[in-house]
Design goal:
- The chain is of the alpha+beta class.
- It has a single domain, classed as 3-Layer(aba) Sandwich (Glutaredoxin), CATH 3.40.30.
- The chain has helices at 3-6, 13-18, 72-76, 78-89, 106-116, 129-134, 180-189, 211-214, and strands at 43-44, 50-51, 61-66, 94-99, 122-124, 138-139, 141-146, 155-160, 166-168, 171-172, 204-205.
- Strands 5-4-3-7-8 form a 5-stranded mixed beta sheet. Strands 1-2 form a two-stranded antiparallel sheet.
- A hairpin with an 8-residue loop joins strand 7 (141-146) and strand 8 (155-160).
- The longest helix has 12 residues, at 78-89.
- The N and C termini lie close together (7 Å).
């Protein structure tokens, strides 16, 4: 049995089995270092185009949030994702949603983006280049990075939760008391050092990358 299900009270066990992707997921190592392998320059979007998410002036700030089509927690954050994308666009911060699930087809991702009116761009990364590079293991999980010059890899400044709306499995605040992603972007724009102890994201494991996938069956 998954460690995720073993965390659930007995009364919720059957619900946990039915909603397995929604089990609380917390990274084993919050200090996961970004990778050093070269990243692809272009990715397919749910709109059928191909973009370079890092095509901006060196030093620019980009925010990425990893999502999946079936994660209830990620889907519950859609209104907040829309707010974040709109509010930071005025500060020239690029906001990108990333599908890291290799089992998600372009058609499924496109239907999901349309059904939830996701802010664009939404890119497909079935090979998990971005999740592996930045250290993401959970959806929704946020990254803030500073773009380098030329072939330099983006510098990760933040990896963690969007806010503290979800405290644990089944424990959700009506409104967050701390907006971690907002704060991380603001610090990056001001040139302040990143938070060295970011709170881990709570949500659904990314297939092949989360704790549940590392467990023996």
């Amino acid at each position: 049995m998954s460690r995720c299900l073993r965390r659930l009270p007995a009364a919720l066990l059957m619900v946990g089995i039915a909603l397995l992707p929604a089990c609380v997921a917390t990274p084993r190592d919050a200090s996961r270092e970004p990778g050093s392998a070269a990243l692809p320059r272009t990715f397919e979007t749910t709109e059928g185009t191909t973009i370079d998410p890092f095509a901006a002036e060196p030093g620019s700030i980009i925010a990425l949030v990893f999502i999946t089509t079936e994660c209830p927690i990620a889907n519950a954050y859609v209104p907040e994702l829309r707010r974040l994308a709109a509010s930071w666009a005025a500060r020239d911060v690029r906001f990108v949603l990333v599908h890291p699930d290799p089992h998600t087809t372009p058609a499924q991702a496109r239907a999901h983006a349309e059904a939830f009116s996701l802010p664009q761009p939404v890119i497909l990364d079935p090979a998990q280049h971005l999740a592996r590079h930045f250290g993401a293991t959970v959806t929704p999980e946020a990254v803030v990075a500073r773009l380098g010059a030329g072939s330099q890899l983006p510098q990760r400044l933040y990896l963690g939760r969007i806010d503290d709306r979800y405290r644990d499995w089944g424990r959700r605040r009506a409104e967050p008391t701390r907006r971690d992603l907002d704060a991380a972007i603001a610090r990056a724009l001001q040139g302040e050092p990143p938070d060295t102890t970011p709170a881990p994201a709570i949500g659904c494991f990314i297939p092949g990358l989360g704790d549940r996938d590392a467990e023996a069956p």
